[in-house]
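WARN no homologs supplied; continuing
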Amino acid sequence: MSSPILDYKRFIQRFRPHTLRSKMMVLAIVMVSLPTLVIGYLVETEGRDALLQEKKIKLSAVTRLLDDALKDSFKLYPDLPRDQRIAALNKQLAPVTDTITKAFSGVGAGYYNRELDAIITYGPQALHGNAVGVTIKQNHPGRDVMATGEPLVRWGSQVRGNIMNSMIPIKRDDQVIGYIWANELSNDIARQALAMDLKIIAVICIGMLFSIWMIVAFSRRFASDIDTIKSGLNELPLNLKTQIPPMKGEMGEISDSVNSLSRALREAKTLNELIIESAADGVISVDIEGCVTMMNPAAEEITGYRQKELIGRPYAEIFENTNFFSPVLDTLIHDIEHVALEVDYPGKNRTIQISVSTSQLRNAQGDTVGALVIFTDLTAKKEVQRRIEQAERLATLGELMAGVAHEVRNPLTAISGFVQILKDSETDPQRLEYTQIILKEVHSINKVIQQLLDFARPRPSLYQKINLNQIINQSLILVKTKGVEARIDFVVQLEESLSDIEADGELLKQVLLNLLINAVQSIAARGEIIITTRALSPDWQEITISDNGCGISDEIKTKIFDPFYTTKPSGTGLGLSISHRIITAHDGDITLTSKLNQGTTFTIVLPVKHSEGIPQ
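OK structure emitted
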């Protein structure tokens, strides 16, 4: 069980201000409120004292006036009995007390005769006349006044009630013959004091609210400047070119100092850091916990990730949803260093091929503090190698096929001629049928040989101004037979504003026919083929042919453009190879994307002007 002291500490800790702004606000409010409350208390106390002093002066003035008005009236009617003399003196002096008390609202005043030991008058007579003739008690402060002959002011319950009573002795011929009083009810004094207190409190509250409002307003401005500086400081480790906007006052001095610091840090960079930043190879370092601590611009360019996305983040999180195990983490965890290791790296937007070298980072004491990876993007290099290898294979195959075709075509020509002679002289229907089959098969062989020759030694291209939309429409006329249209929907989306390009229309038509026929053959029952054209830029145009047929597996994709590779029982495997060679001769590019049982998309990119080079 927690103790009350611990609970109290937790409560205090919970409500303690933690931010600089909140601490300054609390401090400012305390510094404003405490003096204000102290001053208010002092003003209220002094105000009350001043009010009481003013009351004392007023009541004392009333008693002095009554004393002056009395003169020697107490010597009158000495022969009358006590009660009659009190009545006679009251009749004589009551108008005096009434006149004077009328001038001072809320004040009661009167005379007391020591000889008669009775109240002679108590004005206003209409309110206090019933007190005339009353003898005061033995402990009444009036007796002290008569006994000592000294003025006295006393609070308390007396004849009239709870009052502030100012009393002076009546002295005649050095004899105290009575006393005069003037009093005011405590409730009246308290009411006036309360009204004064409320005014003081109102002024204090208004002042404090205004002060708090000013504090909040200035603290917001101050906090805004602090947030700007904090943001700049957070950005500074990632970008030393960070500059904090100019400010005024002390915040301006701080911002100027931070800007000066960033400039000094930029100028103080070591040669190694500058080399790393300028290196064409990507460099990434991780700390002992596997969190990214550094990433150079080349690494950003290669991986697609920005520094803001990776700095301070566990490097392994990037590969959580992949089967990739990072070599640099392998070096960090297992102390296994890699040199020129080729891996497929899952970048932010694409998978890339990179060559990786890793090493551990050690401090001056030799302790491992992290790991470093240096890597080179091999994707473009591998693509160039692939194209070169493919071109070399095609060239070698072309030469071989040209020789084979030449050697095969001569005997076939002889066979075809002699079979034709036999056919013309033959009358047996069965033998005529055999000769017809022989001629048909010889024609098929000749067709294959012609394809081989076209592949090996393509005819010179005839470049002229053509429109891709027209070429596509002409190709579709040859493909869209009644049987095909009955089961396949052709969706043609051609950009009408497409400009003419420099190309060989007949060769492009051959490519389009190959792709369209393959798309038709990939759809077993009902399906859809989408043909689109669009301008990628003023210098490049694109054709896409998509189907929702059987698709192509990943194993076949890499071989699809290889000569003699086919998945069709009667195919030669030269259609796509010839198409690839034609597009390459146009300085264009042909690629495919496909998913098994979902469909295939072929994309052709062609330059508007010949010899533009393949687009990036």
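The radius of gyration is 57 Å.
OK
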